[in-house]
Design a protein that fits this description.
Blueprint: E1 2-11, E2 16-26, E3 28-33, H1 40-47, E4 55-60, E5 63-64, H2 69-73, E6 76-79, H3 91-101, H4 106-119, H5 135-147, E7 153-157, H6 165-178, E8 183-187, H7 192-195, E9 200-205, E10 208-213, E11 226-231, H8 233-242, E12 244-250, E13 255-260, E14 270-271, H9 276-284
Parallel strand pairs: 3-8, 3-9, 6-7, 7-8
Antiparallel strand pairs: 1-2, 1-4, 4-5, 9-10, 11-13, 11-14, 12-13
Helix pairs in contact: 3-4
Length: 289
């Protein structure tokens, strides 16, 4: 399966949210990364057919999705940042309702729902009203509804929002198991959620794709540019003023600092391996997030 995004542009009255965005995706997990306002949510909403682009088209296996949007919608699962719930519904009733909307076979729906409740550690809440549940539990319900129709394309907008560390790990393990025959797109600010999972990372800035590559290859622009050192508090301000700082750890007695620089900042610094957090700061660190 191939999903191709060709020249997608989305204009609003006062700004362009997406500008001639191109992308080609096959089975696997793709991390969509960029600061607030970069166009991530707009792109996902277009992919989910919630809104239409001003220009451009989306192709699935070479066919424009507008030729049969109903068939296309039947193969996608979408989790928006804010999912609307019927607060007085129980978890099972809500998932049954969404299952019916998605046209899931009624003979299979109950087993499918129970399996998802188990996979997402929701079984104990199945008869509870949604209005009584925490935001983290609601988020897991949102993930469940996206999976109900066994979609070939999964679109997640900040899926680990409100999840505790245990449930974030559970989500990552679940998505990893599903990725062999699905296209999974995950937009997130939590870089660690996609660093080890993703087949490719897509960086988006001001509505444009700036780079798309594997987690290893995408770090090449900052190879031999990431430096670490242990410093005292007096040196910290000067380094922050003169260099792009990607991480600071205060150990109580000293400070561990990580910076990006083309040249060695000081005799005490040594080169270290770059990670995706460094790359994020390299491209977006000077912007207001």
């Amino acid at each position: 399966m191939e999903l191709k995004i060709e020249g997608i542009t989305k204009d609003y009255k006062n700004n362009t949210a997406l500008d001639n965005f191109h992308c080609q995706l096959r089975s696997g997990i793709y991390g969509l990364v960029g600061p607030n306002g970069a166009g991530k949510t707009t792109l996902l909403r277009i992919l989910a057919t919630i809104i239409k682009p001003t220009k451009g088209r989306i192709l699935i296996d070479g066919q424009d999705i507008t030729l049969n949007e109903e068939d296309y919608r039947s193969i996608i699962g979408y989790l928006p940042q804010k999912l609307g719930f019927y607060r007085d519904y129980t978890v099972t009733r809500f998932l049954t309702y969404i299952s019916n909307l998605k046209g899931v076979d009624k003979n299979l729906s109950r087993d499918k729902i129970n399996n998802l409740l188990r996979l997402l550690n929701l079984s104990e809440y199945k008869d509870k009203k949604i209005k009584t549940l925490s935001e983290g539990i609601k988020q897991r319900i949102g993930i469940a509804q996206a999976l109900l129709n066994n979609p070939r394309i999964l679109i997640f907008d900040e899926p680990t929002l409100n999840l505790d560390p245990k449930e974030r790990i559970n989500f990552k393990n679940l998505i990893s198991r599903l990725s062999s025959d699905k296209i999974i797109i995950i937009s997130t600010h939590i870089i660690s959620d996609i660093e080890c999972l993703s087949k490719e990372i897509i960086l988006i800035k001001k509505g444009e794709k700036i780079i798309q590559d594997t987690p290893i290859e995408i770090l090449k622009p900052i190879e031999n540019k990431v430096w670490e050192a242990t410093i005292d508090e007096k040196s910290l301000l000067e380094l922050q003023n003169n260099y792009l700082v990607t991480d600071i750890k205060n150990n109580g007695t000293d400070i561990r600092i990580r910076i990006i620089s083309d040249t060695k900042p000081d005799v005490d610094f040594y080169l270290t391996n770059p990670v995706l957090d460094d790359l994020y700061m390299y491209y977006f660190g000077k912007e207001n997030d």
